Amino acid sequence: MPASHIHLERICKRYRERQVLNEIDITIRAGELIAFVGRSGSGKSTLLRIIGALERPDSGTLTYRTKNIAALDENARSMFRRKSVGFVFQSFNLINTLSVAENIALPLQLNLFNQADIRRRVSELLEQLNIAQYADQFPDELSGGEQQRVAIARALAHKPQIVIADEPTGNLDLETARTVLSVLGSVCREQGASLLVATHSDEVTGMADRVVRIVDSRLQTL
Amino acid sequence: MRLTLLLASLRFYLRHPWQASLAIIGIALGVAVFVGVDVANTSAQQAFDRSADFVRGATTHRLLPALADLDESVYRDLIALNGFTGAPIVETNVSLSDGTGRRISLLGIDPFEEAGFRDATRVAIGSADSMLDLISTPSAALVPVSLLGDDPVLPRDLRLRTETGEAVLQVIGVLPSNVGAEATIVADISTAQELAGMLGRISRIDLMLNEAEATWLATQLPDGTVLVDAGNENRTFTELSNAFRTNIIALGLLALAVGMFMVYSTMSFSILQRSRMFAVLRAMGTHPHELTYSIFIEVLIFGSAGALLGVALGYALARLLVDLMLLTVEDFAFRNAVGISGLSPWLLVKGAALGIFATCLAAIEPIRRATRIDPAAAMSRTIIERSSLARTRGSSIAAVIVLLIGLVLLAVPGGNLVVAFTGLFCILAAAALVTPAVSFWFVRLLEPLLKLASPQLGSLAARNVLAQRSRIAVAGSALSLAVATVIGVGIMVGSFRSSLSDWLDSTLTSDLYLNLGTPTEDSAIIDRLTADNRVSGLSQTRFVDMATEYGNVALRAFVPGPRGWGLQIIDAETAMPEDQLATGDLVAISEPFAYRNNIRAGERVSLPTEAGSRNFEVAAIYRDYNTAGAGILMHLGTYRQYWTDHAIDGIGIELHEAAATESFTQYLRDSLATSNVRITSTIGIKAISMRIFDRTFRITEVLRLLAGIVAFLGILSALMAVQLERQHEFAILRSLGFAPKTLAALIITETGIVGFVAGLVAIPIGIVLSGLLIFIINVRSFGWTMNMIVQPAPLILGLLMATLAALLAGVIPSMRSYRSDLSAALHHE
User: Fold this and answer.
1) Per residue in A77-127, pLDDT tens?
2) Residue A14 falls within a domain, yes or no?
3) Where are any strands of DSSP class E within B57-138?
4) What residues form DSSP beta bridges with B776?
5) Domain of residue A123, CATH code
């Protein structure tokens, strides 16, 4: 089993009067695929946002390679997201005014890769995700499944250690969802990235190394 | 990375070309109005400076008569004998006898003493030695090129009407057009004396003195003369023209401010549209400063494009504005002399810098908002527009602070016009900040009425407007502000016009006025009129342009007729100050004179009488829209007590029957046909005065209109952008069964509500603005007070303008919703 590289300890989060996460402890290992399940509003997305440094917990620590991410300032959190995290969103969130290839290149440019490396990595991902024919097209010209593949390519482009996917198949039909998940899972495994997925899908839970349920703002490992 | 972000932004605007175009047009129009005003001001000022420089030449001081003119002996005995460098001058106005009656200045010089003073007169074109020719040729003159018309042949005759009657000058040369002599005819002093009826007299002595010489000479002055610094002589004129220019520049800046609102509105909206993109970029680890840089480049591109287009448009606008400005200038040669100054690199840089600066300033808040977008929003299905409530509260606090700053600036003593305008802009900014909250409060008030008017659409339209508030608030504010300006300036001009009309009605007590042309002591006309049984009474006036320690003063010595003095008293020590004027050494002073010199009723003014300087008590301060600079009024008896001048130059005739004015005018015309007397009826004077007023304010009207057009485009762009972005929502409504017609009516009702409410909010702001213009800006600019009269017309016009602009903004989106592909619109969010 690979070594642990993310550790959450006593994480709490409250929105106004509502306690969303309470005393959450979890350790995530490199290359692990974890499915977070639970009812709508149970706190799955909140937990993923905290792990992805999009949001701060009210209390508790989030350690990534000995650093407490929760305590970092906004600049350091941006750098953490830029280098170590890839996001796959339910509504794809591609930039419609950039072509497919340009969308995939974006995290590489942010991480100051040189042009040759960017070109090589983009064509590699285009091939791997079977979307090379759409390289010069704009996202709003593609179907939902095709857009989600582009989103996955973009999330994996800079080889992050953590990939966070919030309901990645929520907007897709069963067949497309299955294909997208299989691609996402296999590429993450190939890259040794931890894949954390918030989902209602049995397909995802079936593929996961671990399934974690959030009930009454606490974790239950199934 | 930066290039990619920029590329994404540019493609966004390529997909929304109207948004980019309207932002550029907004800033271009704002810059155009400002640059146009600047070029026009500079051109007029340069022409004035050139003319003043030409006449002043190297003169350091002037020896002036307290009254009309000086005896030549003053020059010989005081200046020449004491070895001072001086030049005697005769200056008078003449009219061209070319059918137009246009007036021009005639400068009589002594060619022997001219050396060093006005060397430009020596280089006249067409004359081998212009100084020698002026002396040797009878009635010789040098003229500006504008007087020659299409016929350049010299010598030639030039027919004039002068103080003494018709005259013919022989043009022997043309003054070069680049020396500022475009408004002046130059002749030998003896020729000028003859034409002005001033044999043995001169208008002034121009001097070149050092400090010690000036000090000594000041102690040796004969009574009835004043020594003034040539540089300060035009102080009053310069102050007035500066005030006029400041007013015009302020209107230009207002247009630019409205343009800034357009940029703010466009940038805010485009950032709102791209919120998700920015949230995703932030989630991917983009730093806020990287986003700032990217959007700033975008703003710079808009600013540069708008500014360059604005400079070009502004230059074209300048010609129109110069023409409008010159409507206020009587001197036709001066008007001809004003050409548009060249497109200097400085102007380009200034216009472009101002446009870019204004764009960047307007974009600060939208950029700040973009960089503060929560990256976690990328994981939400919808990005909720950030608490407009918090923003409203913040705006209200900012409004109070800005309002207080504005009030403090307006209360600053000293009467500085720029400070007053800054205060005025602060008040407007405060109003703009609270406008969104007040507007949406109005919409809530209107909602039940709209529901009553149309149960199906009324309430829905009002609620939609409230739901869109963060998108339309800025555009609504800009529209309110511009309409408030239209209303405010409209009320101010209307109040001024009405006050002027009232003032003319009370001041013009006689039915007819005779301008005697040349001042006369001959009482034949008075005797004849007194004996006429149609005449119920006469007033007599002596007008004197007097050089005083306050600068040049228009002194009016007056004997009122039975209808009295006709004064509108602003301040007096007693209830009937007019009665006192006839009894002692008392004077009344005009309001602008009192304001500029900070003199109140009961205080004293010093005037140079023939027996030396004497203090006169101020019995009253009266309203005077005629003498912008300085006016002093005294009884003719008092005047004659201190100045040995028994002439009069004006008679007012009061008739028993006002209806007989026309026939009596004809009778006078027939009986005075051979004299120089000009006869004008009260009605005629009033008509001319009102015409001059309307002409003077035409430029204000045009600039007000331009600010309105900029705002019109602003609301058009903002509302159109909001409505076009709602095509998906409209498609949902249509899929629910909304007929295209109903949907179109809904869209137009919504935009109409926004415009109507903006117009409503603009009314109180406009009234406050007019109050500030009337009671603070006008007083500081011109020293005039006036009655504030709020007529319904400007208010209704403003309301209609706002509503119409907003209704038009709804036309294109409603047409588009008619034609839109329902399934495509439903598919794309």
Assistant:
1) 889 999 999 998 888 888 888 899 999 999 999 898 999 999 999 999 999
2) no
3) 61-65, 70-71, 85-96, 103-109
4) none
5) 3.40.50.300
Asked whether residue A1 is assigned to any structural domain, the reply reads: no
Residue extents of the structural domains in chain B: 1-58+237-386, 60-229, 399-508+696-829, 509-693
pLDDT in tens, B315-365: 888 877 777 766 655 444 455 555 555 557 777 788 888 888 888 888 888
Per-residue pLDDT tens over the stretch B420-465: 888 888 888 888 888 888 888 888 888 888 888 887 788 888 888 8
A contacts of B381 (beta carbons < 8 Å): 90-91
| Mean predicted confidence (pLDDT) in B785-806 | 88
Q: Could you tell me which chain A residue has the CA closest to the CA of B14? A: A97
What residues in B contact A54, CB-CB < 8 Å? 283, 374-376, 378-379
CB contact under 8 A, B12 and A45: no
Pair of tokens at residue B130: 């212009």
Alpha helices in B372-416 (DSSP H): 388-411
Q: How many domains does chain A have?
A: 1
Name residues whose C-beta falls within 8 Å of residue A120's C-beta, 6 or more positions apart in sequence: none
Closest CA to B816 of B735, B714, B721, B750: B721
Our CA angle for B166, B167, B169, nearest 5°, is 155
Give A-chain residues touching B8 at CB under 8 angstroms. 95, 97-98, 102
Inter-chain contacts counted by CB atoms under 8 A, chains A and B: 79
Residues 6+ apart with CB under 8 A from A165: A87, A88, A155, A184, A195, A196, A197, A198, A199
Q: Which distant-in-sequence residues (6+ apart) come within 8 Å of B42 by Cβ?
A: B341
| Residues in B 238-277 with any Cβ partner in A closer than 8 A | 276-277
Structural domain includes residue A217? yes
| CA B611 – CA B416 distance, rounded (Å) | 37
